Model the fold of this input.
Amino acid sequence: MLDELCERLEELSGKLDKMGAFVNFAGPMTHMFRRDDQYQYKTVPAGENRTVFYLRNPNPTKLVGLITEVANDWYPHTYLEWRIDYNPKIVEYMIGNINNPKEFERGIPFKEEVEWIAYNNDTEEHAFGVLCDGFFISREVYERIIKGHGIH
Done:
């Protein structure tokens, strides 16, 4: 019976995804990042910067995002600023290849938003891509897990 229910939920999820709905079924109490949001890219002219990737938590009071895979393009004379909940980290290297992203088994949590900004200090324009995959989980469940493992 449970298997039938899971199959039906996955089927409905596929239909919702085709209609551009926000969530995919991936098990109890999780919502995968939308396919359209997982990989984003932008061409950045020489000497300029642009937001390449942006993902906002659709319901920060009830959900926590967990990033499970990351990949980015990088070029000499460029860097990216990876902001998780407005806290920036400078990235001057390729974390993972777009076709082979780095996995974060425990997930990198965020409550508000994730943003990647590319700074192109080169003399040529570059197309920067960022893959950031993961899922949203109930904030209540997340906090119970964190508290239960003594993580602050």
